[in-house]
Amino acid sequence: MDVLIVGASAAGLSTAEALRRLGHDGRLTLLDAEPHLPYDRPPLSKQVLAGAWEPERARLRGQAQLDALEAEFVRGERAVSLDVAGRAVTTASGRVLRADAVVLATGLTPCRLPGQGGLAGVHVLRGLDHALTLRAHLTAGTRLVVVGEGVLGGEIAATARGLGLEVTLAGLGPAVLGDQLGPFVSGLLTRTHAGRGVRLRLGVAVEGLEGEGGRVTGVRLATGETLPADVVVVAVGSRPATGWLDGSGLALGDGVECDSRCRAAEGVYAVGDVASFHHEELGRRLRLENRTNATEQAQTVAANVLGADRPYTPIPYFWTDQYDVKIQAHGLPSPAAEVTVTEGDPEQHRFAALYREGGQVTAVLGWNMPKQARLLRQQVLVQPLTTA
After folding, report:
1. Best label site of 133, 184, 348, 364, fewest CB within 10 Å?
2. Residues 112, 115, 116, CA angle at the centre, nearest 5°?
3. What are phi and psi of 194, to 5 degrees?
4. Which structural domains are found in the chain, ordered by start?
5. If residue 64 lies in a helix (H) or strand (E), which one and from where to where?
6. Mean pLDDT across the chain
7. Which pTM does this prediction carry?
8. H or E stretch including 132?
9. Angle 366-337-320 from CA coordinates, rounded to 5°
10. How much is the pLDDT for 114?
11. 259: burial class by Cβ within 10 Å (0-12, 13-18, 19+)?
């Protein structure tokens, strides 16, 4: 069996490794738009951006480990179309790659603000080149505005404060990670940013960017206020990288729509950030954007490519590091949930908490308490909530 994997970041590479571990000895090809060796993305907004790591340290595997896969890596080639019936991918250069099974692992594309492409000093952060360019601009500037109060925006703001920049964090939500963690935890995180000197402009829409001489000078809010900036990072979210699949016949909603086996069509699978899969125990569709999911889902995809019939039913998990705060969340925390601290003390910056909805534990969270959060994970109920 020949297997073609489109995307060679964490999800794609993990799928290739799992295939070999499971005994696949057929042809294995990884097609990737990136020119770099496969690298890890979580360090980009922290260690790499801060300059604590050289780019090589973020590599997922060394050259010897990649060679041991006995796979063909086609780097710097962007996929532009998929023939589902023929299981053939065409690249931007016109090359056609065919296989018996195709795994889609193309990840995410960062969202941008209207007009941001015409101004120097305006950045997104998704890939290694983004991180290195942004770092160079941060070391040359003094005033940073981060647009977006989610995980990425919070991490970039924290890293930049560590570098000594004046940082303003702007976002439509009322608190940092408010949509993900709810008012109690997000309130603590927002106060942490404020205590570290981040200027907060939350709950206000960004109307646009201002510039002079082709370079950004500020961010204009709906209130009429302009936030002065030498550098702006737009972290307003990402969308699944599925544009190249338009017209393929695959169902493309919030990502590549798959069944519970991560199968999008006969012989075509999706894995990682781009995969919208049916979670049998929850009874609904999920798409998870985190490093852990990329690795775990790859194991199921590889097994199913080789003939298994295994549903993917994870307990969702994500983490973020901001300043000296390490947050781990298992399950599906919701702003509507009731949050109860079960161990530790928020005032001491170490605690574990349960999220409950309808009397059921739907998530656990550790704030500088990773071990306790893992132990509480067994209480998370991964099934549809009962109705009162």
Report:
1. 348
2. 55
3. -60, -40
4. 3-109+239-305 (3.50.50.60), 112-236 (3.50.50.60), 324-379 (3.30.390.30)
5. helix 63-68
6. 95
7. 0.94
8. helix 128-140
9. 30
10. 79
11. middle
Token pair for residue 67?
């060679």
Beta bridge partners of 101: 3
User: Which tokens sit at 295?
Assistant: 């690795």
User: 261-296, pLDDT tens digit by residue?
Assistant: 999 999 999 999 999 999 999 999 999 999 999 999
Angle at CA of residue 151, ends 296 and 283, nearest 5°: 45
CA distances (Å), 240 to each of 237, 274, 289, in order?
Answer: 10, 5, 10
Residue of 131, 199, 138, 137 lying closest to 163 (CA atoms): 138
Q: 328 near 198, Cβ under 8 Å?
A: no
Place of tokens 């603000």: 113
Tokens of 33: 């738009």
Number of neighbouring beta carbons within 10 Å of residue 229: 26
Residue 388 has pLDDT above 50, yes or no: no
Q: Is 207 helix (H, G, I), strand (E, B) or coil?
A: strand
Say how far apart CA 381 and CA 361 lie, in whole Å: 6
